[in-house]
Amino acid sequence: LTLHNNIYAAPEYLERYGTPRGPEDLANHRLLVYGEDIRGPVDLNWLLRIGSGERSRRRPTLKLNSLYGLMRAAESGLGLAGLPDYVASGSPRLVRALDTVSGPVFEAYFVYPEELRNSKRIGVFRDFLVSRVGEFPRSAGYAV
């Protein structure tokens, strides 16, 4: 499963502060980012660096250590958030703010011990996951 990250905001935020036209405009916006304790396959604070090189001067308006918290802050109109599409797709209050810029892409895998390969429970759960992923629109940035 390929997962994508993009920039999201509440329509009210974009009406008040304008829609960024390119990565260079992000310096003039309120940026909502993940906290400092980042471990994982993806740079969750890519919003601070995208299009600005390694020496970004962008400062976040708010740091949270929860993707759900970032989504809720963006929904409230506090700023722009770089979110995985699977998080943002759960919110009818968010719109993609900058269509010309995409964040990091990463792969997600369903992994289990080899000895459970023929397990009925594993097969049922795998089928459930595949069916749920199929429910997401392709425009949300998913690929199976």
Tell me about this structure.
The chain is an alpha/beta fold. It is built from four helices and six strands. The protein has helices at 11-17, 67-75, 85-88, 120-135, and strands at residues 2-9, 31-34, 62-64, 80-84, 95-96, 105-107. Strands 1, 2, 3, 4, 5 and 6 form a six-stranded mixed sheet that branches. The longest helix has 16 residues, at 120-135. It is elongated and about 55 Å long. The relative contact order is 0.26. Mean pLDDT is 85; it is low at 138-144.
Alpha-carbon distance between the two ends: 5 Å
N-to-C SSE series?
EHEEHEHEEH
Low-confidence stretches are 138-144
Mean pLDDT: 85
Instruction: Report the structural category.
Output: alpha/beta
Number of helices: 4
Helix content: 25-40%
Biggest pleated-sheet summary: 6 strands, mixed
Question: Care to count the β-strands?
Answer: 6
Please give the structural blueprint:
Blueprint: E1 2-9, H1 11-17, E2 31-34, E3 62-64, H2 67-75, E4 80-84, H3 85-88, E5 95-96, E6 105-107, H4 120-135
Parallel strand pairs: 2-3, 2-4
Antiparallel strand pairs: 1-4, 1-5, 1-6
Can I get a quick summary?
The protein contains four helices and six strands.
